[in-house]
Amino acid sequence: MTSDETRGTAHGTAPVPLSVLDLVTVGAGHTATEALRTSVELAKLAESRGFHRYWVAEHHSMPGVASSSPAVILAHLAAHTDRIRLGSGGVMLPNHAPLVIAEQFGTLEALAPNRVDLGLGRAPGTDGATAAALRRSTQLNEGADDFPEQLAELTRFLDDDFPDGHPYRRIHAVPGPIQSTSPGGVQSPHRPPVWLLGSSGFSARLAATLGLPFAFAHHFSAQNTIPALDLYRESFRPSEILAEPYALIGVSALATDDEKEARRQVLAAALNMVRLRTGRPGLVPSPEEAEAYEFSPMEREFITSWNANVVHGTADEVRAGLDDLQKRTGADELMITSHAHGGALRLRSYELIADAYGLPTA
Known about the structure:
By secondary structure, this protein is an alpha/beta fold. It has helices at 3-7, 32-48, 70-78, 98-111, 128-135, 140-145, 147-159, 178-181, 201-210, 225-235, 259-277, 287-292, 297-307, 315-329, 343-356; strands spanning 18-22, 53-56, 85-92, 116-121, 194-198, 214-216, 247-255, 311-313, 333-337. The chain contains 15 helices and nine strands. Helix 3 (70-78) links the parallel strand 2 (53-56) and strand 3 (85-92). Helix 3 packs parallel to helix 4 (98-111). It is globular, with a radius of gyration of 20 Å.
C-alpha cells in the first residue's frame, strides 16, 4: 500500500480528502435499475470533482438498499471510471469464505489496477435471520468472534503466503500474486489494501494492532466516534503498511439549494431508519409520505437524536458542519453519504458540496 492509496489529497478549501459512501438507495416509486444508474453517474461526478474514493456498502434483505453485492457493483463502476479509488465500505467478512473475497477483489484489482480498496466489517449488514441464511448457520456470534482469524486467512490468500505445511499452502486466490511468480508470469504483485471498518472499539483496536487504516461509521454510531478514534490512535502500532494511524469517518450529509428541501429529505430518511429499526424495512419514503406520517412520541425522540448527526442544509451550512466535525474528531478523511428520495437530489448534493469547497471541475 502506498501513501497515495491511503492518504489521498485534499482539494480546494477542504480540510481533508473527501470521499463518497454509496448505499445505492431505492426510493418509493423508483427501481433498483434507476438507483444503480444513479451510482454510475455519481461515481463519474465524484471522479471529475476530485473526491478521493468511492465505496459501496454491503447490506441484505433491505428493499431500500440495492447494494447486496459490492463486488458486482464495483466491477460495473470500474468500467465507467478511470482514476477514482473504488472499494467496499464494507464487505461483511463473516458472511463469506475468505477465499471467495480474495478471488473477487483480485478480479477487481485486475479490472482496475491500483484503484481498489478492500474494506472489511464483522457485522452481518442485516438482521439475524438473514445473516443465518447467508452463512447457513445459526451460530452468528461465532462469525464475529472469529473475525481476527478470518481476517488473517483472507490476508494470507491476498498475499499468497501460507507457510509450508499449512493445509491451504497449495491453494491460490486467482487473480493474485501466484500469477506473477508462475513461469512466464507478468502480472503485478500488487493487491488491494485492507481497511477495517467499525462502529465500536473492537475493530479500532484490531486495526491499530495490525497497523491498518481504519474507517469509523460516524453516520450511525456518532456517540462512539471520538472514543473509537482515540482508542485507534493510542493503540496504533506502525507497520509496513502504515507508519502512522489513518482514520476516515463516514458522515451523513445532504446539501440542497433550498434549506427547507433538505429538512424534508432528512425527515424521509429518518422515517426509513425508524422502520428499519423496528423490523419494517422498505423503500425510502417520499418527503410527502414522511410529512403525512403520524410519529409516536418515541419515534419523534429517535428522529431528533438521529438527525442531530446528519449535516444538512444549504451548501454553506453543510460545509460549516463538515468542517466542525473534522475539527472535533481529527478525522484524516471524510466519507460522505447523502440520503435523498430521488437520485437527482443525491447527485446535486455532491455537486453543491464540491462547489462549496472549490473542488476541481474537470
